[in-house]
Write a structure and sequence with these properties.
Number of strands of chain A: 9
CATH architecture of the largest domain in chain B: 3-Layer(aba) Sandwich
Number of strands of chain B: 20
CATH topology of the largest domain in chain B: Rossmann fold
Distance between the termini of chain A: 36 Å
Radius of gyration of chain B: 24 Å
Largest sheet of chain B: 6 strands, parallel
Oligomer: heterodimer
CATH superfamily of the largest domain in chain B: Thiamin diphosphate (ThDP)-binding fold, Pyr/PP domains
Strand order of the largest sheet of chain B: 3-2-4-5-7-6
Number of helices of chain B: 24
Order of helices and strands of chain A: EHEEHEEHEEHEE
Structural class of chain B: alpha/beta
Strand content of chain B: 15-25%
CATH class of the largest domain in chain B: Alpha Beta
Distance between the termini of chain B: 78 Å
Low-confidence stretches of chain B: none
Number of helices of chain A: 4
Helix content of chain A: 25-40%
Number of domains of chain A: 2
CATH superfamily of the largest domain in chain A: ACT domain
Largest sheet of chain A: 5 strands, antiparallel
CATH class of the largest domain in chain A: Alpha Beta
Shape of chain B: globular
Chain lengths: ~180, ~575
């Protein structure tokens, strides 16, 4: 295999047809080619019948280049871009259930407020905290809450968008341009 | 026109020009057969095992360039197609597989003969689809053929539930266009990259073309040969690219790789430029990647972007249709002579004569193939299975026309030789088709001799019978201290009697002087013939670069004095 330079975190977005089995095709390709997905988020796009996927993939340029090419080869995948080097906004949502009692509840609330996160459930022995932000922000909150005892956590995975463009995907480094998909 | 789903499939097959299909019916797909009987324009060839349907469709497609079609029922019918589909995927063969599925309401309930065949074939098809509405059938078939035959070809499976085939009639409207927003077919390559490639070619002192299956698929053999002649660049072919240039062309060095010609492998080692055309630098071609073509820059042209830089890093990667790209490249390439390089390669050929068959009193398999190809004068089609006989055929058969060597390269499917030859013969009824078989592979699919007889497919089967799994035997000989565990057949059937049982002619050959006569008799006999060549049993395929090694570790046939 062609091995190149060092591993880093890449963010890829793909516009895909909203058909049964698309997620399986994508996941199967990753498994079959031995690529690791750090996170994957899928949801509707602005166009009916099309979904947008955001992938976070750790790898060197060779590996991630292969990921993009192999994704693009899937018939149901309309467009793929590696937007790592673009100017992008990224967000992730996390729900964190942390052990909390009368003694430390106030301290936790202070931390939560500091992060502009929300408390969405309070029980006698726990709280559920909702936070939206970039990955680092969520990691930071996680680290501060960890000493209290995190009993459950759910992260959605990153969603990403290129800043300031009129529509759709960036002209990524795999040479594909925006296209009208109604062909 | 109101039609059932099954009738729409038949109409769509006609629209796509599929006049032959290979299949075997069963419960879920039976409505399609009910319709097929009213469509004499679609010739159905009934196989004995569904894997033969897929492999025959494969052979048909490779011989004709058309899409091969196979049909099977749900469950075991569909899973029996799997090996043939996987072979077509690995070798970029255009194929459409149509499978019946259990009725929609039964899907997911583990119904009788239910298999999630779109799930099973997901990683071994170019695309697949489950058609859940009769209104989508025509579009699905149209899209399937389009995907199968364009770009880098491959198999597409269309799974249709029984009640969609059988149920309500619907208006048949043939779709004007495909509905594939995510599917692009590369054409030309960017001009700047073509120029960069041309400059590398013009500067090269020791260039080599490596010509792959893509050259045949894209019908680019003429342009490839033109490029070779204009710049005087020797041509090495991959296993699947063998017939892209006539065997006797002065620039043709034959096959390289694990069992390739020694001089071809040494030439790669010494080359300063490799021009890879429609090939994928497979491990059988490259050996240990870090030692492959250590002195060469690489130009890689392929229609599949994911192949470029996948196995080897190219100096220039051109993504596009080979014929279009060679059309762009040729005017920019200067005429050249490369006298020293060509002379050096002639010397290599003399020093490492791996194309020569040694003198022997025994019936050598190489000798059989050499005589066979002399009798056929390199005309007709040769189909092989996988193993020693395949490598000897690749080394010693001669080709004069493109698309005349059909073999399971990427997947390496034993048993391919029987059904694929049948398919090739059905596709090219006026061409002599020789199925070069191993006795191992032949026994995997010989049930479909009946299909050849029934469909009047005039295939000549040449079994290179060494009563063993020869390639396994060879590997055990060299790497497992001659521990021949499970590689020797002690109770092979009498293949001449097998021929007789199928009502065809069988000829046994045990001596060298019987070979030519047997081949001639087989060709003069109408209908399929089985020739059982009882060849030397422990013959080794040379040259041999062991898996994961390089040309430096290449084993060549010992000279006669070394043997003695």
């Amino acid at each position: 295999m062609v091995q190149t330079n060092h591993t880093k975190q890449h963010t890829l977005i793909a516009l895909v047809e909203d058909k049964p089995g698309v997620l399986t095709r994508v996941a199967s390709m990753f498994r079959r080619r031995g690529f690791n997905i750090a996170s994957l988020a899928v949801g509707n796009s602005e166009q009916p019948g099309l979904s947008r996927m955001t992938f976070v993939v750790n790898g060197d340029d060779y590996t991630v280049g292969q990921v993009a090419k192999q994704l693009d080869k899937l018939i149901d995948v309309i467009e793929v871009s590696d937007i790592t080097s673009e100017s992008i906004v990224t967000r992730e949502l996390a729900l964190i259930k942390v052990k909390a009692n009368q003694m430390n509840r106030g301290e936790i609330i202070q931390i939560v407020n500091l992060f502009r996160a929300n408390i969405i459930d309070v029980g006698s022995e726990s709280m559920v905290i909702e936070i939206t932000g970039e990955e680092d922000k969520i990691n930071a909150l996680h680290n501060l809450l960890a000493p209290f005892g995190i009993t459950e956590m759910l992260r959605t995975g990153l969603v990403a968008m290129v800043r300031g463009q009129a529509n759709g995907l960036a002209n990524g480094n795999n040479g594909h341009t925006n296209r009208n998909v109604d062909c | 026109m109101e039609l059932t789903g099954a009738e729409i499939v038949c109409e769509s097959l006609l629209k796509e020009g599929a006049d032959v299909v290979f299949g075997l019916p069963g419960g879920a797909v039976l409505p399609l057969y009910g319709a097929l009987s009213s469509y004499p324009g679609v010739r159905h060839i009934l196989v004995r095992h569904e894997q033969a349907a897929a492999m025959a469709a494969d052979g048909y497609a490779r011989a004709t360039g058309k899409v091969g079609v196979c049909i099977a029922t749900s469950g075991p019918g569909a899973t029996n197609l799997v090996t043939g589909i996987a072979a077509a995927q690995m070798d970029s063969v255009p194929m459409v597989a149509i499978t019946g599925q259990v009725p929609r309401a039964a899907i997911g309930r583990d119904a009788f003969q239910e298999t999630d065949v779109t799930g099973v074939t997901l990683p071994i098809t170019k695309h697949n689809m489950l058609v859940m509405d009769v209104k989508d059938v025509a579009q699905a078939i149209h899209d399937a053929f389009h995907i199968a035959r364009t770009g880098r070809p491959g198999p597409v499976l269309v799974d249709i539930p029984r009640d969609v085939l059988l149920g309500d009639k619907t208006e048949f409207v043939w779709p004007e266009t495909t509905k594939l927003p995510g599917y692009r077919i590369p054409g030309k390559a960017p001009e700047a990259q073509v120029t960069a490639a041309a400059e590398l070619i013009n500067q090269a002192e020791r260039p080599l073309i490596m010509s792959g299956h893509g050259v045949l698929i894209s019908h680019a053999y003429g342009l490839m040969t033109e490029l070779a002649e204009k710049a005087q660049v020797p041509v090495i072919t991959t296993l699947l690219g063998l017939s892209a240039i006539p065997s006797n062309h002065e620039l043709n060095l034959g096959m390289s790789g694990m069992h390739g010609m020694a001089y071809a492998n040494i030439a790669i080692d010494e080359a300063d430029l490799i021009i890879g055309l429609g090939m994928r630098f497979d491990d059988r071609v490259t050996g240990r990647i870090s030692d492959f073509a250590p002195n060469a820059k690489i130009i890689h042209v392929d229609i599949d972007a994911s192949e470029v830089d996948k196995n080897v890093k190219s100096a220039v990667g051109l993504v596009g249709d080979l014929k279009a790209v060679l059309g762009q490249l040729l005017p920019k390439v200067e005429a050249n002579v490369h006298i020293d390089w060509l002379r050096h390669i002639e010397e290599l050929k003399a020093q490492h004569p791996s194309h020569i068959v040694r003198e022997s009193d025994e019936l050598l398999p190489q000798y059989v193939l050499q005589r066979l190809t002399e009798v056929t004068q390199g005309r007709g089609i040769v189909v092989t299975g996988v193993g020693q006989h395949q490598m000897w055929a690749a080394q010693h058969c001669r080709f004069t026309q493109p698309n005349t060597f059909i073999t399971s390269g990427g997947l390496g499917t034993m048993g391919f030789e029987v059904p694929a030859a049948l398919g090739a013969q059905v596709g090219c009824p006026d061409t002599v088709v020789w199925s070069v078989c191993g006795d191992g592979g032949f026994q995997m699919t010989m049930c479909d001799i009946a299909t050849a007889v029934e469909s009047k497919a005039d295939v000549k089967f040449a079994i290179l019978n060494n009563s063993s799994l020869g390639m396994v035997h060879q590997l055990q000989d060299i790497f497992f201290e001659k521990d021949y565990m499970a590689s020797e057949y002690t109770a092979n059937p009498d293949f001449v009697k097998i021929a007789e049982a199928y009502g065809i002619r069988g000829i046994r050959v045990t001596e060298q002087d019987q070979v030519v006569d047997a081949v001639q008799q087989a060709m003069e006999t109408a209908g399929p013939v089985i020739v059982d060549f009882m060849v030397k049993e422990d013959e080794i395929v040379y040259p041999f670069i062991p898996s994961g090694q390089s040309v430096k570790e290449m084993l060549e046939e010992p000279a006669p004095e070394e043997i003695a």
